[in-house]
Design brief:
Blueprint (H helix, E strand, L loop, with lengths): L15 H14 L2 E7 L10 E7 L5 H14 L4 E8 L6 E9 L7 E7 L5 E7 H5 L7
Antiparallel strand pairs: 1-2, 1-3, 3-4, 5-6
Helix pairs in contact: 1-2
Length: 139
């Protein structure tokens, strides 16, 4: 199952050249970049681990790509995404986010149904990877 979160998630994986073009676009807009990673990409897990420090005031694409390269080396079996943050007045939010690296095997999710009193039914999204392995060794 292919995880689809963020921009470009329904497209094939971006090449490094395509990632560089997206970074250039973000830098041209004046947005700060950062790299995040996780081994638990649950749809409600919006807070991934920050790789290094946010790249404020970086105007060099190579610096951002270096941080991405280091994250790929260290977190090869996890998910890595790039975020762009617009700090301008009135926005002050993440304006672009896209996955740049993913594990070779993505086990996916399943829906667990629980029946309660009075025909009350709840559904919970569960991860196959969390059931099988402890945190840090899921992929």
């Amino acid at each position: 199952m292919r995880l689809t979160q963020g921009c470009f998630s329904f497209l094939p994986d971006l090449t490094d050249q395509q990632i560089e073009k997206q970074i250039a676009y973000c830098i041209d807009k004046g947005w700060a970049m950062n790299v995040e990673w996780t081994d638990d990409p649950h749809p409600r897990n919006s807070y991934w681990e920050l790789w290094g420090l946010p790249l404020f005031d970086i105007k060099d694409i190579a610096s951002v790509m270096f941080e991405l390269s280091e994250a790929r080396k260290s977190c090869a079996n996890g998910y890595i995404r790039m975020n762009a943050f617009d700090a301008s007045y009135g926005t002050e939010s993440c304006v672009m986010s896209f996955i740049v690296s993913r594990p070779s095997n993505e086990p996916g999710f399943y829906l667990e149904r629980t029946e309660g009193a009075g025909r009350f039914i709840t559904y919970t999204i569960k991860r196959y990877s969390v059931q099988a392995n402890a945190e840090g060794s899921r992929y």
